[in-house]
Amino acid sequence: IAIAGAFGLLIAWLIVLNARRRGDDPIAGMQRALDRGEFIPYYQPIVDIDTGRICGCEVLVRWRKADGQMIPPGSFIGEAERSGFIFPLTLSLMRQAAAELGPSYATRPSLKCGFNLCAAHFQDDKIVDDVQEIFQRSQMHLSQVLLEVTERDALPDMDTARNIIASLQAMGVRVALDDVGTGHGGMSYLLKLGVDVMKIDKLFIDALGAERQSTAIVDSLIDLAAHLNMDVVAEGVETFAQVEALRRRGVRQAQGYVFSPPLPGSSFVQLVEAMEPA
Ligand code: C2E
Ligand code: CA
Ligand code: CA
Ligand code: CA
């Protein structure tokens, strides 16, 4: 039995080794895809609902496999965050966005470009140097960069996060709290992190006008943002009724399918060039 057991273990070990060599290891697979340029940024326009003009975009990653298949972030971001692969991935998206949007952004200084960061990015100040290095030498200016930190993940060390955010702001970068209303932070993230922008989650926008409780939450978030001197962006806006409800409440910036889905770089650049005078 002992010999059979040992033999079984040996077989299992050989299978794992072989899988690694063939590249079934998900992290090695993602690293190879990164080297091949398979992770690309899509850009969702953010619109000023008073004027209809584009104020910027949010970068949303897509994995474009060699066969053309598009993989949405939901199926690999979790693994990327757990493994640390999210760090090189995020830097690659920043470099690609800076290169792709740089020429149109250079002549339109009020446009912003938002990037999604994860909790781990706000625990190590290397991100400050990386962002400075990427955008200082690019046509996209540091003052056009918006970094989003999601309320969905717990921030293990609030003081470190607060200091990193302050260092980024000192370089002219703006910081947004993403998915507000859904996460761990509650009011404490809004009060303690000192962010510039509040992104109100789709969950509350969906219910605008329909459910009284969600409407009350949106109203109090907007009120809080005004008191804290923060800009508000409404996420996941899908209907004109929602746009109207936001307008009545004085919310100016919105993002969602009612305006545009996330677009490939060439389409977003075309839209900007057509709509926004340089
Ligand atoms: P998020 O940051 O909340 O991004 C908004 C998501 O809502 C995007 O999904 C977007 O395509 C989708 N969306 C936008 N407008 C509408 C709408 O009107 N209706 C509906 N139903 N959906 C809308 P996506 O691109 O699948 O991204 C999902 C999540 O993956 C993002 O949520 C973000 O948390 C994460 N993610 C995406 N790209 C990155 C990245 O580069 N880094 C990190 N760390 N996370 C990322
Ligand atoms: Ca986001
Ligand atoms: Ca440093
Ligand atoms: Ca969000």
List the helices and strands and how they pair.
Elements: H1 2-22, H2 26-35, E1 39-48, E2 54-64, E3 70-71, H3 77-83, H4 86-106, E4 112-117, H5 126-136, E5 145-150, H6 158-170, E6 174-180, H7 187-193, E7 197-200, H8 202-206, H9 212-227, E8 231-234, H10 240-248, E9 253-254, E10 263-264, H11 265-275
Parallel strand pairs: 2-4, 4-5, 5-6, 6-7, 7-8, 8-9
Antiparallel strand pairs: 1-2, 1-9, 1-10, 2-3
Helix pairs in contact: 4-5, 4-11
Bound molecules: ligand C2E and calcium ion (3 copies).
Structure description:
With 278 residues, the protein is of the alpha/beta class. Helix content is 47%, strand content 19%. The chain is built from eleven helices and ten strands. The chain has helices at residues 2-22, 26-35, 77-83, 86-106, 126-136, 158-170, 187-193, 202-206, 212-227, 240-248, 265-275, and strands at residues 39-48, 54-64, 70-71, 112-117, 145-150, 174-180, 197-200, 231-234, 253-254, 263-264. It has an eight-stranded mixed barrel with strand order 1-2-4-5-6-7-8-9, surrounded by four helices. Helix 4 runs parallel beside helix 5 (126-136) and helix 4 (86-106) packs parallel to helix 11 (265-275). It is globular and about 75 Å long. The model has no long low-confidence stretch (mean pLDDT 93). The structure holds ligand C2E and calcium ion (CA) (3 copies). One calcium ion binds next to helix 5. Its main location: membrane. Its EC number is 3.1.4.52. The chain crosses the membrane at residues 1-17.
